[in-house]
Design goal:
The complex is a heterodimer of chains A (326) and B (251). Chain A is α/β, with parallel strands linked by helices and 326 residues long. Helices cover 31% and strands 27% of the residues of chain A. In chain B, helix 2 crosses helix 5. Classes of the chains: A alpha/beta (326), B alpha/beta (251).
């Protein structure tokens, strides 16, 4: 059987997640370099509908894994079902988005397929085999690895690989029901969505982030939230203020928090500790607002304003509003 | 309840990384090594769960160089009963290789619960906990911020995208990986530090299977070119917005 590139396209209730487009597009690019067919795989309730939608990214062949056994999410069951499809489709390369979904599945797929996946990759090359580049030490260094066994499995960091959508086509979908799933498993029993259905930091196109220079939790809320709302941005925070209890850990950017790569990162009152810089330095454009002109954040910022956040942020929010509505 | 906690020694998060002459590993000169921050949460949780169960024992397990004895003593000072040190000094080990070695030892320990930090902050794989679970045939929940155990079952909350949480029910034995927020790790007290000196650290020399990933190179990321200070205070805002729109196309 010829080998294929498997694109695991993450979906929820029939709708593809944003990262799925990035994974499908990269799979197609890699497939043409490696001379392999590309098969998109979706799983869980709504998988068949979502599988068809991968055609928008140029996928022609998709497999949807659906069944009563997969109605409630379980990492054990999902990994076993995906591993079966990967084997049946002759997976030579397997790509998945580096989201929470992959954090639960990647290691399991490695164990089941007896390979070592590469997590959170930011670059893939084909040199007769896959070479994957991935940040280590929270992005302070880049590691390049190769895979002695097949399939080569890699998760792709969101916002790094471009999605090539708008093809307006639909993929041919084969729907399969998994068999022989493990009985001893963790089962999802409850899902609590955060207020306002927030954009996640790792997938956000714009992030407004604050640190100690925001003075106190009230000032943070008063100045950061309106700017973030006007820009449609996600909110980030430095470790110092998360540890101080001002903001939830889910907003922490940097080592022991999240690594982000938005189009625009606005750092307000953040001095730029090395572990914070590691987590946001691959952002496309960085803006820093800080009253200390010597703050290390200015070393990585494209544009800086030296000044107090209480003076700078209110007019910034007002003038952004003018731009957005104009 | 028997709990095994897998820990690793890593460069502190304040480390400025330099690549060594071979282009394959970091230059360790002057680097401060610490217990992986997420592993502190795992050790604390193990001690809490044993207390809550009304008895049991916490065993620390680590694969790493001689020098990790210091971090193992810290875990023992926090309250773990003993440690098993699989001595191996290689700068790069892929996830499956590490998982396979740990699995052999964990099997022998027959724990009810296995805890990991969600990822080691050096290689940032974030896979080994669930990989070990799969090889053992145990269920697993990664990135856990809340854990309660009763009647042979664990209830674990997991943080996912956008600040949402998922709650899982898991039969024991199982694997849990600890996310920040799970607890506040205790500092070892003097009594704990003294007691730790007498606690056993068993050393073994594991044989490693063939690697499942090969290291091609380790490099520093490209430097960002230094940007410009647009100006001072509120007056600089219009120029900042003009640059963001016209030069950076970021708005």
């Amino acid at each position: 059987m010829s080998q294929s590139v498997i694109a695991i396209a993450e979906q929820s209730e029939g709708t593809l997640r944003k990262i799925a487009g990035e994974v499908c597009s990269e799979a197609i690019r890699l497939g043409s370099k490696a001379g392999m067919d590309v098969v998109a795989v979706t799983i869980g309730p709504g998988a068949t509908q979502a599988a068809g939608a991968t055609g928008d990214f140029g996928i022609t062949q998709a497999v949807a894994v659906e069944g009563d056994d997969l109605a409630a999410y379980s990492g054990e069951a999902y990994a076993a079902a995906l591993a079966e499809v990967i084997r049946n489709k002759g997976g030579g390369v397997v790509l998945i988005g580096a989201t929470s979904f992959a954090r639960d599945l990647l290691g399991r797929l490695g164990a089941l397929l007896e390979v070592s996946p590469a997590s959170d990759c930011v670059g893939l090359e084909w040199n007769g085999g896959l070479q994957a580049k991935r940040p280590v030490y929270a992005g302070k260094a880049l590691l390049t690895v190769a895979f002695p066994q097949q399939p080569a499995v890699a998760s792709l960091r969101p916002n790094v690989f471009g999605a090539d959508g708008g093809k307006g086509a639909s993929a041919t979908v084969e729907t399969v029901a998994p068999t022989g799933l493990p009985a001893h498993r963790a089962t999802l029993v409850e899902r609590n969505v955060a207020e306002g259905n927030k954009v996640d930091l790792t997938e956000a196109e714009t992030i407004v982030s604050g640190g100690r220079g925001m003075k106190d939790p009230e000032t943070f809320q008063k100045l950061i939230e309106p700017l973030a709302e006007t820009l449609g941005a996600a909110i980030g925070a430095s470790r110092a203020i998360v540890d101080a209890g001002w903001r939830p850990h889910s907003e922490q950017v940097g080592q022991t928090g999240k690594t982000v790569a938005p189009k625009l990162y606005i750092a307000c009152g953040i001095s730029g500790a090395i572990q914070h810089l590691a987590g946001m330095r691959t952002s496309q454009t960085i803006v820093a607002i800080n009253k200390d002109p010597e703050a290390p954040i200015f070393k990585v910022a494209d544009y800086g304003i030296v000044g107090d956040v209480e003076e700078v942020l209110p007019p910034l929010t007002e003038q952004v509003k003018g731009l957005v509505s104009g | 309840m028997k709990v095994t906690v897998c820990v690793k020694r890593v460069p502190s998060t304040a480390t400025r990384i330099k690549v060594g002459g071979d282009g394959k590993a970091i230059d360790e000169a002057g680097v401060e090594f610490v217990l992986n921050p997420y592993d502190e949460f795992a050790v604390e949780e193990a001690l809490k769960q044993v207390d809550a169960a009304g008895g049991g024992e916490v065993t620390i397990l680590s694969l790493g160089p001689e020098a990790i004895t210091k971090e193992l003593r810290t875990c023992l000072a926090m309250g773990a009963a003993k440690a098993v040190h699989l001595v191996h000094d290689a700068p790069f080990r892929d996830p499956l290789t590490v998982a396979r070695v740990l699995v052999e030892e964990i099997k022998a320990q027959e724990p009810d619960l296995v805890l990991f930090g969600r990822q080691a902050v050096d290689n940032d794989n974030g896979q080994i906990g669930v990989m070990v679970a799969t090889l053992l045939g145990f269920p697993a929940v990664p990135d856990v911020t809340e854990l309660t155990i009763a009647d042979g079952k664990a209830r674990a909350s997991r943080e996912v995208e956008g600040g949402a949480t998922e709650v899982y029910e898991v039969p024991l034995p199982c694997v849990i990986t600890a996310q920040k927020g799970l607890n506040e790790p205790r500092y070892p007290n003097l009594k704990g530090i003294m007691a730790a000196k007498k606690k056993p650290i068993e050393t073994k020399e594991p044989s490693l299977p063939d690697p499942a990933q090969t290291l091609e190179s380790l490099a520093l990321p490209p430097e960002r070119s230094e940007g410009k200070i647009v100006g001072e205070g509120a007056e600089a805002v219009p120029e900042l917005l003009r640059l963001l729109r016209d030069e950076a196309s970021a708005l």
